[in-house]
Specification:
11 helices; 61% helix; four-stranded antiparallel sheet; single chain; alpha+beta; elongated; four-stranded mixed sheet; 404 residues
Length: 404
């Protein structure tokens, strides 16, 4: 049977009420306090304090503090007026008090649920904001890389056009030189022809009279070399496909630029993407994930069209907790694994599972479930994927039920 506390004290102003309930030696962690707009309760067995207030108070602006052997209620009145007494006249009505107690407990429960719901919503908003900012940073970084590549491509194209202009200028100069030589030959022939008719045949052989008549030494016969504008491709210009040729030349210039930018101290194997992929796999099996990332990254710089490099690097990022990098590499791997065919089904399934796992680690369960369901469509007989997807679905349903 609880013992009612009678030695409490209280005072008031027109806008507030202060109530002090002694704890009689009870420890703070053993005290149960309940406060609503019209009902107060302090329980510390075997003692019990209960109060039905004379008028309602503002529960959001009121407070209850435990310390110095007492519970201090600081209550803010809803209406600015002095109370005639602390207790309401309904305090003696047992049925009324029972109803008020039940309503107070219900109000406290609803407020607690509302606070929990607000906390969950705020946490979700913070996570979405953090993800959005991270994706924005990644997008800015990709845009920088794209602009840098575009600038390098433009420089390579300009170099190629400049080289072609130089070749055309050289061909024009050579053509002009040959035209001048032909004009000189024609001039000397026209000049010598009428004189040669008057010179005896025997004097022509000696050449002295011929030189005196023309004023110039006799031109010796010889061969004239003719050069043409060089072409990279063996086919004639009328048979070539200029667009494809220009695209091929651009790729060659880009490949040459990448080759020249490589460290000359690297061995032949270290310039081979397949060898670097196998090396990264060895590091991964040994547990050296950062070294594996470095190997895969170097291989990607040499060949950015191998989806396995991005998928393997995503697995490394997942191991060391770089979830955003894992999601980015899995997405790139899936872009390269197109069109979807049976030959790349296993690779696509791994990429979906790794990206779904990264989403779950970020508590983005809906996005993670979408990837697991995509993997299950690729491999419908995989029981482990099915169980993981079902756990994720139950977790999402539980979270939605808690929020509602």
């Amino acid at each position: 049977m609880p013992i009612a506390v009678k030695d409490y004290t209280w005072d008031q102003t027109e806008s507030s009420v202060n109530i002090v309930v002694p704890l009689k030696g009870a420890k703070s962690n053993k005290v149960d306090v309940l406060s609503t707009e019209k009902y107060l309760k302090v329980s510390y067995p075997p003692y019990f304090f209960e109060c039905l207030l004379f008028a309602p108070v503002d529960d959001d602006k009121s407070s209850a503090q435990i310390g110095n052997g007492a519970v201090l209620f600081r209550l803010q009145k809803q209406e600015v007026v002095l109370w005639d007494q602390l207790y309401s006249t309904d305090y003696a009505d047992k049925e009324k008090m029972k109803e008020i107690r039940s309503q107070a407990l219900e109000d406290v429960k609803m407020k607690a649920e509302q606070r929990d719901k607000e906390k969950v919503e705020k946490k979700r908003e913070r996570e979405k904001y953090a993800l959005k900012e991270a994706m924005k940073l990644d997008e800015d970084e990709r845009e920088k890389i794209r602009k840098a590549k575009e600038l390098e491509r433009k420089l390579a194209t300009d170099d190629l056009e400049r080289w072609k202009d130089e070749q055309r200028q050289a061909a024009l100069k050579e053509k002009e030189r040959l035209q001048i030589e032909r004009k000189k030959d024609i001039f000397y022939k026209e000049l010598v022809s009428p004189v040669e008719k008057k010179i005896p045949e025997k004097n022509k052989e000696k050449g002295s009279i011929f030189e005196e008549a023309t004023g110039a030494p006799k031109r010796e016969p010889g061969m004239i070399e003719v050069t043409f504008t060089p072409r990279v491709f063996p086919t004639a210009a009328r048979e070539s496909v200029s667009v494809e040729e220009q695209e091929w030349l651009k790729k060659q210039v880009e490949a040459q630029r990448i080759k020249e930018s490589e460290d000359k101290d690297l061995s032949e194997e270290e310039r081979n993407p397949l060898w670097l992929r196998d090396k990264g796999n060895s590091f991964f099996k040994a547990g050296d994930f950062q070294a594996a990332i470095n190997a895969y990254s170097h291989a990607i710089r040499l060949d950015s069209k191998m989806p396995a490099l991005f998928s393997n690097r995503a697995a490394c990022h997942l191991k060391i907790g770089n979830m955003f990098k894992c999601i980015e590499d899995c997405s790139k791997s899936l872009e390269l694994l197109t069109p979807p065919v049976p030959q790349n089904a296993a690779s696509r399934c791994k990429a979906h599972i790794r990206r779904g796992t990264a989403f779950c680690q970020l508590e983005l369960y809906v996005e993670g479930l979408m990837d697991y369901e995509a993997a299950l469509k690729i491999d419908p007989k995989n029981e482990q994927i099915r169980q993981d997807a079902e756990k994720m679905r139950q977790l999402i349903q539980g979270t939605e039920a808690a929020e509602s």
